[in-house]
Design a protein that fits this description.
Helices cover 77% and strands 0% of the residues.
Length: 258
């Protein structure tokens, strides 16, 4: 298994698209800096409105952006092999296809975890350095208080990567898999929020974008239906996302010719 892991790592870091996707990290830092700078400048320029000037916590925003990047990377990790024909070589060298899938998942998960935590904690320290000693609403809590939420949000980025990998295996098409992800990110929330009564709350609660705050037990941060899951429930939902994505991918990968 070590050799398969090493080969998947070499494949991942040897393609140009990996570095293009990971460029999302400095882009996120730039967006955080711009957003923080604009609010800080407003805070400095309007002393009378300082008590009502709010910079919302950036945790959900940054993990969502990082999740988009690693989900696309998960798609490309398998669809690029199909498009180049390299997947035939991979399955010839490693006939147990589930082992190839497992190695891809482990390598992607490790990279996604690092990216997720880097983005979360990097954004925290960057914004706090720019805010300085200003008492800006939404950014006055200590690192120890924010750490559980940032760890949860950074860890959910791993699930985005597994979702992308699973869709890539199922569809074998970069465009198709990314379209499915876009539909999940943008269309599904519009549908879930229109459901009647508690159905809207339950459906919204299991969306990936809302699981970090429930996993951290920090409650609802914005507008929308009430979130229903406990911390344990959110953790189970995350595990189910990974199990369904990789389980379906494993079954399909074993039954196909290629």
């Amino acid at each position: 298994m070590t050799g398969v892991l090493r080969s998947e790592w070499v494949k991942l870091r040897s393609v140009r698209s990996t570095y293009a996707v990971l460029a999302v990290v400095p882009v996120i830092f730039a967006l955080v800096a711009l957003l923080t700078m604009s609010v800080v400048n407003f805070w400095d320029a309007t002393p009378a409105r300082r008590d009502t000037t709010i910079l919302s916590p950036l945790t959900g925003f940054t993990s969502w952006l990082a999740g988009i990047g690693v989900a696309v990377l998960g798609v490309l990790a398998i669809t690029s092999e199909h498009s180049s024909g390299l997947v035939r070589t991979s399955f010839t060298v490693v006939p147990r296809r589930t082992r190839v899938l497992a190695a891809k998942a482990v390598v992607l998960a490790a990279l996604a975890f690092v990216v997720g935590q880097l983005v979360e904690f990097g954004s925290f320290f960057l914004s706090r350095a720019m805010i300085g000693d200003r008492t800006l609403v939404g950014h006055t809590s200590a690192l120890a208080e924010e750490a559980p939420r940032m760890l949860a949000a950074g860890s959910v980025v791993v699930v985005y990567a597994m979702l992308g990998l699973g869709l890539g295996v199922l569809l074998r098409s970069t465009a198709g898999a990314i379209s499915a992800l876009v539909a999940y990110w943008y269309v599904a929330p519009l549908i879930t929020q229109k459901l009647p009564g508690e159905w809207a709350s339950w459906a919204t609660s299991v969306m990936l974008t809302h699981l970090p705050e429930q996993l951290a037990g920090s409650g609802r941060l914005g507008i929308g239906p009430e979130l229903m899951l406990s911390q344990v429930g959110a953790a189970v939902a995350l595990v189910l996302y990974v199990a369904l994505a990789l389980g379906a991918a494993s079954i399909v990968m074993r039954r196909r010719d290629v």
